Amino acid sequence: MNIQATDFLDLSLKMYDLAKKRDNLQRYIDRNHTRNDSERNENNEEMVKITDEIEETQKKMDVIIGDFGKEDKMVSKIVSKFLTADYPDHPDETVIPGITEKDVFSYYEGVKGKMLSELKGREIFVGIVPKGYKVGQKPVYVRHPYDKKTDYIHINSIEDFDKYNGGRVLEIHVTMPATAPYYVVDFDAVEDWPTTKKITTEIADMLEKLPEVKNVEIRFSGKRGFHTLGWLKKPKPVAQAREDLKEHLRNTFGERKDLVIGESPKGTKGALGVSPMKLNGGQVALWSLRVTGLCCVEVPRAQLAAFKKEDASFEKTYKLLTGKVFVPMKTKKSVNRIVNSYLDREAGTYPEVSEAFRTRERQMLIQPKPIKPTKPADPSEPFAKTGEKVWIMNDKGEWIQIPWSTKLEEIRKSSC
After folding, report:
1. Which of 31, 51, 71 represents a domain boundary (last residue)?
2. What does the pLDDT read at residue 66?
3. Residue 367 and which of 176, 256, 265, 321 are 20 to 30 A apart at CA?
4. pLDDT tens-digit profile of 50-85?
5. Domain annotation covers residue 376
6. Spatial separation of the C-alpha atoms in residues 51 and 18, rounded to whole Å
């Protein structure tokens, strides 16, 4: 049975909306039971209609559930599939205008190695875009991993990242730990773009002058403003860091007529927000995609004046991080993931394959023709079959041979 986990997610969201509508209507009926018969009949008819739609939606979910058994086990399997890295089931379906599932999948496939340093050790939530997204809507934010063993998602390795790259997970956000490693000012702008960059420069100037700050980093948020980080020489409790930062902002910008110190702009005044400066306060991860189609990118101070929003397009960001022109993947299955998974299961039979080897942006190929390398081959071709063994490049760039089992040969044939 081909389980479409994205369909299940859409039906789950629909079920939530219907249940909410039903409960609201029931509360209205309970509060206004003395109203006229005509209105009571209309409400009852609407309740029957909603109930029927809930039952119909549940039937569609049951079809997807199939024979998975108990609901809690089923949901785990469905969401596990949805959050397991594999080429999208509907690669050409639009996620947001101009970006398809295969674009999202391919982008993260290429840049995940660069994102890991930002994600390791952090509590994370992701933004999922279900079908039917309309411009201006927010993603569905999810912080629990599918197994619900922890309160937040954790991505500490390439394998962890792969679980969440399926084409519909668009945004990745980190949260602030109990001990803040940096100050962060979330500048939400309403003025013209040159003014936005000018004020961002002033925020960076303020942070650079603080004795407790060792260096400053400017990031375009991927929307309409910037996040300016002041990395602390000595991390401090997040509550203290928040109050200290607010005091610095008041001292520097408190008299400004074009700014407010708060989370939302007021009229034509931009907002200097500190919402990430609290325990588990959210902040978009560096290099993450956004619903705008742009990315959260680092902007060197010297390049800020010339920086344009279009410089943060996912194609330009991809090329910046990988050195390659963005080309969406077309393969239905990722051969190297299957191979790596098989090597993991056969631990002891095959030599250990290092983390460095696994992070080669998953662009390794099993070569269909026998090729015996006489010298280090192109890194994009780390597999080359010779007889009954396979040549494989280790993390030191050396070629070694491992047994080419019948099972691995079957995997190769089914995946090419």
Report:
1. 71
2. 52
3. 321
4. 888 887 877 776 665 553 333 434 344 433 433 344
5. yes
6. 8
Q: Is residue 139 part of a domain?
A: no
Range name among 128-142, 326-340, 375-389 with the lowest pLDDT average: 375-389
Containing structural domain, residue 393: 335-415
Is the dihedral angle over the CA atoms 316, 318, 321, 322 positive or is it negative? Answer: negative
Structural domain includes residue 380: yes
Number of domains in the chain: 2
Categorize the per-residue pLDDT at 273 as very low, low, confident or very high, splitting at 50, 70 and 90: very high
Which 3 state secondary structure label does DSSP give 410?
Answer: helix
Report if pTM > 0.70: no
Q: Measure the N-to-C terminal CA separation of the chain; round to a whole number of Å.
A: 22
CB 165 within 8 A of CB 288: no
In a domain, 312, yes or no: no
- Token pair of 78 as six digits: 């469905």
- Provide mean pLDDT across the span 305-319: 96
Closest CA to 164 of 92, 221, 108, 96: 108
Alpha-carbon gap, residue 51 to 19, rounded angstroms: 9
Longest CA–CA span in the chain (Å) reads: 90
pLDDT digits (tens, 9 = 90+) for 81-108: 333 446 787 888 999 999 999 999 999 9
* Residues near 6 by beta carbon (within 8 Å), at least 6 away in sequence: 82, 89, 90, 130, 131, 167, 168
